[in-house]
Amino acid sequence: MPADGPARRPVIPGAGRMPVPDLAVDRIASAPGAARFPESEEHVGRVTLQTVADKVGVSRMTVSNAFSRPDQLSAQLREKILAAADELGYTGPDPSARALARGATGSVGVLLSNSTATAFSDEVASAFFGAIAHTLNESGLALTLLSSEPSGEVVPARDVAMDGVIVYNCDPASGAREQVVRRGLPIVNVDQASEAGTPGVNVADREGARAAARHIVELGHTKVALVTKSGEPPYGIVDPGEADRHRASDGYASIERLAGWTEALEEAGVTPVVYRLPIDAMGGHGAILAEILEAAPDTTAVLAFSDVIAADIVLEAQDSGIDVPGRLSVVGFDDNPLALRLRPQLTTVRQDVSEKGRLAASMLVDAVRSRRAGGDASPAASVTLPTELVIRGSTGPPFEAPGA
């Protein structure tokens, strides 16, 4: 490597940000001083784009489109080309060379607030990511999950090659989002506070939480506990003053749901007990109800941040001999499939997480394509999807002690 800096990448004159045909990979690979790709198409068993083109009787460009721009071909012709390629053992143009030729990676990232384990352990998150992956796949793009937390010297938001990013419920204080902004990548926010100039997808968290709290009030409950999430201590039971203090690290959904609950309860003259969990809590907290009842023994209803947390509370109640809903009503949020497996089935607030993922991915695909064409990378407006209260068996009138 020269002492005055890294070697420059080969440049295609006049290409700008416009898509470059994959057959330009050959020109780059043969250019003087060009980087050599050990697995480029000219080295894979001597089977090349031209080999496939000759077998099918089409042009090299048509074969290239079958792999990289399937929308340019009929489904029948593409299947014929792919079948011929498979028969010849040809897997397509080398991804590294193709990315260099096109000035694009063919992958977009989803930046998470915490560990990527959430994507695989939570059914709501899995549905969200599944919808994103399906939509991206239809557009010829791959999905990369990124933690907002650095690992050693690697900072995913800064170091991972990608064409755009979905920022999903990410703590603004982490600095990861700022790294993405500095790179100038197209961004779509999900479950984030609205930002001018940046498209986003949210659900009506506050309205859904308000509907859940009103349902509890209409049943006659006045002794209510709220279980929310926070990005920093204190955790457990918090005093009213602390409960009213919102921080960006609490997460957009947490802030909005807590606001919706408290607004509806204040309208009814109800002062709730507030219990906080860490923002990355994913279930398995078996002592929430015990702590709530120790602080407020007359509690008859609990509104929980998610169905996973609500299920923990229902199971803890049943393990303690507390009847749901006879002695305690419980409401969740999300309409996780878990809500239907629970007994009694869980009253909850439904959000369409699959549609949320599909919309976010579609917005990002449009932004990436617009950027490649030299246009505005943020052409879409923000969208707020509705929520719906779903009443099931975990809620009922408040418990009245004998002789009360």
TrEMBL record:
* Coiled-coil boundaries: none
Asked whether the keyword Hydrolase is assigned, the reply is no
Q: Which InterPro entries match?
A: HTH_LacI, LacI/GalR-like_sensor, Lambda_DNA-bd_dom_sf, Peripla_BP_I
Q: Name one GO molecular function term.
A: DNA-binding transcription factor activity
Give all residue intervals belonging to the HTH lacI-type domain: 47-102
Record Gene3D superfamilies:
3.40.50.2300, lambda repressor-like DNA-binding domains
Give the keywords, sorted: DNA-binding, Transcription, Transcription regulation
> What is the protein's given name?
LacI family transcriptional regulator
